Amino acid sequence: MSNETHENENRRPVPPQGHPKKNPNISNKEQMTALVFALLFGCLGVHRFYTGYKLIGFLQIITAGGCGIWTLIDIISLIFNKFKTADNKQLAHYNKLASRTIFWYGVVIVLLVVLQMAILGSQLQKFTMMPQY
Questions:
Q1: pLDDT digits 0-9 by tens, 61-88
Q2: 31-57 pLDDT, tens per residue?
Q3: Which DSSP state fits 93?
Q4: Which of 72, 90, 107, 109 has the greatest number of CB atoms lying within 10 Å of its CB?
Q5: SS3 132
Q6: Are 96 and 80 a contacting pair, CB within 8 Å?
Q7: Which of 94, 92, 96 is nearest to 29 (CA)?
Q8: What residues does each domain of the chain span?
Q9: Cα–Cα dist 119/130, whole Å
């Protein structure tokens, strides 16, 4: 047996970057899972419970996610990979492209909602104006 063949047999597969087994500063909690929890159940603090913040999760339930503002801040920090777990570790498997895509879809949806409200507001104003005598 040659030396090269022996080396290939003993090689282990290398875990992907951001994998908890490769880096002790990476949590076993996944970023995309936390982001989906924040998007769907943000006002209930489910993403906070998932990442180990039980007290903050409970406070988010009581305050409805800080009236949505706290949840919005959490979503933005999850999208830009600034959110850490309760034990101060990065979330695993950060997907920059997917996160930024979700961010830009959100921006477009907010802009469309604001535009729709502006259009409806101007149409309602026309109907509610009464002629002055």
A1: 999 888 889 888 999 999 888 889 989 8
A2: 999 999 998 898 899 999 999 999 988
A3: S
A4: 90
A5: coil
A6: no
A7: 92
A8: 14-128
A9: 20
Residues in the chain: 133
For 15-24, 56-65, 97-106, which range has the lowest pLDDT when averaged over its residues? 15-24
Q: Which residue has the tokens 């087994």?
A: 21
Residue 25 has which token pair? 């500063």
C-beta of residue 59 within 8 angstroms of C-beta of residue 45 = yes
Rama region for 49: left / alpha / beta (φ>0; ψ in -120 to 50; rest) = alpha
Encoding tokens for residue 42? 């943000």
Question: For residue 92, which phi and psi values (nearest 5 degrees)?
Answer: -80, 155
